[in-house]
Give the backbone structure.
Amino acid sequence: MKPKKRKSKVKKTEETEEVEVKPKKRTSKAKKTEETEEVEEKPKKRKSKAKKTEETEEVDKPKAEEKTPKKAEPKVKKDRKRMPPSVNIGTAGHVDEGKSTLIKLLTDSFPDTHSEELKRGITIRLGYADCDILKCPSCPEPDCWTVDDFCPKCGSETEVVRRVSFVDAPGHEILMQVMMSGAAIMDGVMLVIAANSTVPQPQTREHLAALTALGVEKIVIVQNKIDLINGEEAMINYQQIKEFVQGTIAENAPIVPMSAMHGANLDILLAALQEFIPDPERDLEAPMRMHVARSFDINRPGTDPKRIRGGVLGGSVYQGKMNVDDDIVILPGLKKKVGKKTIFKPVKTQVKSINLGSFGRSKTATPGGLLGIQTTIDPSMARSDSLSGSIIAAYKEGEKLPPVVSELELAVNLFDNVVGSEEHITVKPLIRNEKLLLTIGTATAVCNVADILKKGKILVDVNPQIAILPETKIAISRNFNKRWRLIGWAEIVDYKEVDIKIIA
Ligand SMILES: Nc1nc2c(ncn2[C@@H]2O[C@H](COP(=O)(O)OP(=O)(O)OP(=O)(O)O)[C@@H](O)[C@H]2O)c(=O)[nH]1
Ligand SMILES: [Mg+2]
Ligand SMILES: [Zn+2]
């Protein structure tokens, strides 16, 4: 592609700034506090032997304990076999339908830990937690599946079959980009639909469309909150779900009726996850690439300068293998202001340690599983997710790095209608100079449409630049009344690469 000079008026930072989320009522706050206390006095249902990691310390705020499933207190096995996570399973679905409660049931930890999330009663950021899926050697399918060390049905010792990392996405309509950047690190998804609501709700539709656009096609549907309805209502709701998914990627997805709050049918859900979301085939020989979904500074204020630890980046390995002490490059890199322009400087650093969630420290990381890596970069550069949306690549002298781009040529597919709004909005064709929000991997960028080309192709300016994996599918959102709505998706046909100079 020929270099072209075109001035873009886009300022990513201003336009992508977080939109105010309206407070939402959450039921029985007082009751919840009582329950929290009660839960804390009891021995923990499942004890994780992983040491508390640096990564978790950062977000270690008071936990919002949801109602504990009414199950017998299982014992904890001492010599439990441990294996690193091998798959990432996400949540998707309309706000408040029980995604985080489901993660709590599976992993024993409630993902909403930030004070704003607790105050508003909704998920705002991506949540992370993991658990082992275990099998009872004595019970038949699907009774045999559990997340406990001892079978809740017969008491036999269970065996670990695999470890799963979960990515909990928010359902609120204005947090669509958060959900979509989370989709970049999901191998499969649990689409949660409340049985006591009509199907589909706007974000049930929009999330399914986003999953389709971004190629997350392994789906298990959770028909949640069945404790709130009777058998007949459950059947009507089930039919609505069936009709909704007909002709979509979720057409053949299993539908598991559940109560995430009371733990009903957890075994059936686990059986479905085992069958319908297997570990994808991984390319361990390919050059290592990792999606960064968050970044932070783990040093407490006032830390002795000699003991300061480098910036931490969290996300998931996309391909290849990462080892402690590997040289890596963060792309597009560290943000710098040059006059009025924001530019990025790719930075070379080293993997100092690898943390696989509650599994704990590891010398290596492969695709599947969420991880945090400590690097040698100035920790202030990683503060407050400032590096989320980056790509980390293995650094080897002379080896090609993922491109950092300033322009993209896209083959676009637009939906007929805006799927995520209550009202009916037709998607009109794209026009030159309009601004679109693109979700590319874990990155989001407001881009200017520079040109409309033939055969459904467009040219967009990417400013500030981002790093891409060229095979990545892109979700396209358009602004309607100050709200970004998903309107379609695209594939990368060509791109204009920025010359990068790596700083060590
Ligand atoms: N009765 C009943 N209530 C449930 C169940 N699952 C979740 N809830 C309640 O539904 C409300 C919302 O649950 P969350 O898990 O926060 O929902 P969410 O889908 O994560 O919400 P967002 O992340 O904000 O989209 C909470 O009050 C839960 O206690 C269930 O199976 N039965
Ligand atoms: Mg939630
Ligand atoms: Zn059993």
